[in-house]
């Protein structure tokens, strides 16, 4: 954690921009500066992690209840009951307050990491993209982002055996700018998977791999863009779902994705 007056001032300035950072609304230069600050400040990293978890909990709560048509019909019937002017005035304000609450909840549950999202990212589905972005941010903000620390793919890959219900191949990084930092077991929609962290010119990139389950729609392969805070590429291959996400250039994300696709064919 930063110490001294200067450190405290820096933290206070970044704290005021934390929501903008998590929503990807800062400039590229500020995003990089914030990334560097979070990696070196345990206090701000903890704040970022707590905020990510809070946003995730809000979205989960918003999805727990979807009004049925019968419920909607009963509410409409009750709203149509003729009432006294004073009661009607209170009812209108009550309904307005309830509607405002629903709009706020909806904005929180839909807005996180979906603002200015390009159509290609939307193809993944808003919920899945949000969860992948959550996993990426929360892992980087963690004091222990990886459980197996190694730059050797022959060390990292065997570590996952017995911890997840599938096997995968890791690409050979020789003659490339990418470096492997390690990996950990993670979960997406309660399914276990592999979360690998790569580094490219001080940018951290997450590669997440999960098993394709019955009912899961195939993920379309697309060229990532930088319209949001992260460039992302996703695809389905040989019964596995792959996600590559990071704040580096879209072509870097695509290059790493291509390396994984070729490794899966080997």
Report a brief summary of the structure:
By secondary structure, the chain is an alpha+beta fold. It contains ten helices and six strands; from the N terminus they run H-H-H-H-H-H-H-H-E-H-E-E-E-E-E-H.
Instruction: Specify the CATH class of the largest domain.
Output: Alpha Beta
The domain count comes to: 2
Classification by helices and strands: alpha+beta
Q: How are the strands of the largest sheet arranged?
A: 1-2-3-4-6-5
Biggest pleated-sheet summary: 6 strands, antiparallel
Q: What is the gyration radius calculated from CA atoms?
A: 22 Å
The CATH architecture of the largest domain would be 2-Layer Sandwich
Gross geometry: globular
| Percentage of β-strand residues | 15-25%
CATH structural fold name of the largest domain = Phosphorylase Kinase, domain 1
- CATH superfamily descriptor of the largest domain: MucB/RseB, C-terminal domain
User: Order of SSEs, N→C?
Assistant: HHHHHHHHEHEEEEEH
Stretches where pLDDT is under 50 for at least 5 consecutive residues are: 1-6, 95-123, 222-227
Q: Give the number of helices.
A: 10
């Amino acid at each position: 954690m930063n110490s001294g007056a200067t450190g405290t001032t820096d933290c206070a300035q970044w704290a005021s921009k934390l929501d903008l950072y998590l929503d990807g609304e800062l400039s590229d230069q500020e995003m990089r500066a914030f990334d560097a600050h979070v990696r070196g400040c345990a206090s701000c990293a903890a704040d970022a992690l707590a905020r990510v978890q809070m946003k995730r909990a809000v979205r989960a709560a918003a999805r727990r209840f979807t009004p049925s048509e019968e419920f909607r019909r009963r509410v409409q019937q009750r709203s149509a009951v003729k009432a006294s002017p004073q009661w009607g005035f209170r009812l209108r304000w009550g309904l307005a307050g309830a509607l405002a609450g629903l709009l706020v909840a909806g904005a929180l549950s839909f807005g996180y990491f979906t603002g200015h999202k390009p159509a290609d990212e939307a193809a993944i589905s808003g919920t899945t993209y949000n969860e992948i972005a959550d996993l990426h941010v929360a892992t980087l903000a963690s004091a222990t982002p990886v459980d197996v620390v190694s730059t050797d793919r022959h060390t990292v890959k065997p570590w996952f055996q017995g911890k997840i219900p599938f096997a995968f191949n890791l690409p050979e990084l020789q003659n490339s700018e990418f470096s492997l930092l390690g990996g950990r077991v993670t979960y997406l929609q309660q399914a276990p998977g592999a979360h690998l962290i790569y580094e490219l010119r001080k940018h951290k990139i997450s590669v997440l791999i999960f098993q394709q389950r019955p009912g899961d729609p195939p993920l379309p392969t697309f060229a990532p863009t930088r319209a949001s805070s992260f460039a992302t590429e996703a695809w389905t291959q040989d019964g596995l779902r792959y996600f590559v996400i990071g704040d580096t250039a879209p072509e870097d994300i695509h290059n790493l994705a291509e390396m994984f696709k070729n490794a899966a064919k080997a």
